[in-house]
Amino acid sequence: MAQISLTFLDGNARHYDAGITAAAVAADISSSLAKKAISATVNGAHWDLQWPIDADSAIAINTMKDDEPALELVRHDLAHIMARAVQELWPDVQVTIGPVIKDGWYYDFDRKEAFVPDDLAAIEKKMKEIINKREPVRTEIWDRARAIQFYQDKGEPYKVELIESIPGDEPLRMYWHGDWQDLCRGPHLQHTGQVPADGFKLMSIAGAYWRGDSDRTMLQRIYGAAFTNKEGLKQHLHRLEEAAKRDHRKLGREMNLFHMQEEAPGQVFWHPNGWTIYTELQDYMRRRQRAGGYVEVNTPQVVNRQLWEKSGHWEAYQDNMFIVEVDEDHAREKSINALKPMNCPCHIQVFNQGMKSYRDLPLRMAEFGSCNRYEPSGALHGIMRVRGFTQDDGHIFCTEEQIESETETFIAFLDAIYTELGFTNWAIKLSTRPEKRIGSDATWDHLEAALGNACRAAGHEFDIQEGEGAFYGPKLEFVLTDAIGREWQCGTLQVDSNMPERLDASYVGQDGNKHQPFMLHRATLGSFERFIGILIEEHAGKLPVWLAPRQVVVATIISDADDYALEVVAALKAVGVRAEVDLRNEKINYKVREHSLGKVPFILALGAREVEEKTVSVRRLGENKTSVTSLAEIVAELGKAATPPDQL
RNA sequence: GCUGCUGUAGCUCAGUGGUAGAGCGCGUCAUUGGUAAUGACGAGGUCGGGAGUUCAAUUCUCCCUAGCAGCACCA
């Protein structure tokens, strides 16, 4: 038999017969390793201990101490164990797919009756029984016909469909956990007992479409969280609890920022505190955009259907538009309008007024554009996904040659703003040509490369989302993460030649002929609503001082300090600080607690000493200590702290 | 939009086939207290909306609506 050479991490090599399993290699090293082994890494691939190795390879034997493979296997085996538990409890349930995801796994089932929360406890109990049986996992490769027949006989049509969608030349791997069988590409643990019985928890039940297709059956998905030990799970659950405290919907209520109500679903009622954040942010963006060479415009809310037909939005999005019918006295027909769902067609109307020359390009046009979209009810989420919102929108009209440099300039612009707003952790995604598209491959090659080059030139890595671009051009998405790790697209930049064409935008080139400009749709924050939601969660409500709706509360300890408190507040307001007094007949403990919970960055406490010495006792949010400062000093300090970063 | 769950006082939540309760908050009074809850008293609810079953519905059933989780969608 042919010999192969396996090289270990330490550089040593051993020789074995070709076809040896990783399990046998582990056993050859030591019997304790053979017991502890969970999988191998062979030439960088995650390798089941039962799979044969046929050629010279680099190999490492993994144990539970190797976090990445261990988590992968534990979660993957738990998916199978859960599916087995469910089928043991309810034999009529059909199994579908069950992948590993961040922090755990899920498995989708088809079952007539709905799973209820109490079922989760029963399933967990059954899973623990299965784990305690320490049943061996084994695997075989089957040919397609046999596998299809097997699943047809078993009454598992979803598995048949899965096999039919797997490319014909790929071998099908069957796995058994004890007697329970599933189709799976592996790898898996050696036996069910290797799964930590106290390291997992079933989290929730939700609906999910078979194969992610909303035209097909809705299955029932059970989510689980899993770690290699009890402590890992405990920490995860603790993180979830902490994240819930940062939820912008909860903080929005507690800080009295905004509310929403049944009569206006998906639209925000901004309260004075919340609106202060909003206007402060908008003022900042306005200054930033002016400095960035943008001209600001404003365009209509209610726009006749004809323009949307011409732009192509009517055909694609009419179901998601708010339609406004106007029945004028003398009109023979109703006039059909839509609340604008986006600003670009209107911006082209502005661009089209008067002749434009190549000398006018790039023309950067911005609008705080109030838009309405009839979002599907299930998509609404606090102020992050709403039906009425304002974009910090902008369109850059430019030539094809200017696309790359304009993109690079925009990324630098966005980067500076995200940094000033306290975001360090954001990602760029580059969406490339979709199947249905217009334009030549040569143009797509150029545009995709231009966006990628611009990212690199601006010093940013990016992930590629294959085929996710718009039909008219590639796009960049600037993605931020909320408290529990859900990603939200905030900024965006999209290259578009289609709309200038449809809406007849043109400029006179150096050659005296008419040319069509390219258009870069771009937004920095995206929508104020979503961005403020993210901002609240990122800072857990403790906003940077310049954005905090209430920056300073001057709280009296005794009523004899009232006059001085008013004097202090007046001095702070004079330098532009949002300061309030708290003269209530309450103890200082009470006031400190209340304003700390209200996330006020500075509390100034005033008692007899402060009145006497013309000082203030300063308490900063998040600190338990206080310091005493002269009035003049604190006014200067807080005046500076309250200044937006671009004005320092 | 789809599946499941939920909607009781301003907030967080208990509860029941015989028209409701707590804590916090709010108001009044007393208290002038030095950095995360001073005390007493008091006010406050068509139990999301509509229909049905019933002698009687906040409670059971159905429809609608909104919210939550996930899926689908996101110009």
What is the assembly state of the chains in this entry?
single chain
Task: Please give the order of strands in the largest beta sheet.
Answer: 18-22-23-30-27-26-24-25
Strand content: 25-35%
Low-confidence stretches: none
Largest sheet: 8 strands, mixed
Radius of gyration: 31 Å
Q: What this model shows, in words?
A:
The protein has 648 residues and is an alpha+beta fold. It is 35% helix and 27% strand. The protein has 20 helices and 35 strands. A hairpin with a 2-residue loop joins β4 and β5. α3 crosses α4. The radius of gyration is 31 Å and the shape is globular. It starts with a strand and ends in a 7-residue tail after the last helix. The protein binds one RNA strand of 75 nucleotides through β14, β15, α8, α11 and α18.
Task: Break the fold down into its secondary structure elements and pairings.
Elements: E1 3-7, E2 13-17, E3 20-21, H1 22-29, H2 31-36, E4 39-42, E5 45-47, E6 52-53, E7 57-62, H3 67-89, E8 94-95, E9 100-101, E10 104-110, H4 117-132, E11 137-142, H5 144-154, H6 157-165, E12 172-177, E13 180-183, E14 200-209, E15 218-226, H7 230-245, H8 248-254, E16 258-259, E17 269-270, H9 272-291, E18 295-296, E19 302-304, H10 305-311, H11 313-317, E20 323-326, E21 335-339, H12 344-351, E22 363-372, E23 388-398, H13 403-420, E24 427-431, H14 441-457, E25 463-465, E26 475-481, E27 487-496, H15 498-502, E28 507-508, E29 514-515, E30 518-527, H16 528-538, E31 552-556, H17 562-574, E32 579-582, H18 588-597, E33 602-606, H19 608-613, E34 615-620, E35 626-630, H20 631-641
Parallel strand pairs: 1-7, 18-22, 24-25, 31-32, 31-33
Antiparallel strand pairs: 1-2, 3-6, 4-5, 4-7, 8-10, 9-10, 10-15, 11-12, 12-13, 14-15, 16-17, 19-21, 20-21, 22-23, 23-30, 24-26, 26-27, 27-30, 28-29, 33-34, 34-35
The structure holds one RNA strand of 75 nucleotides.
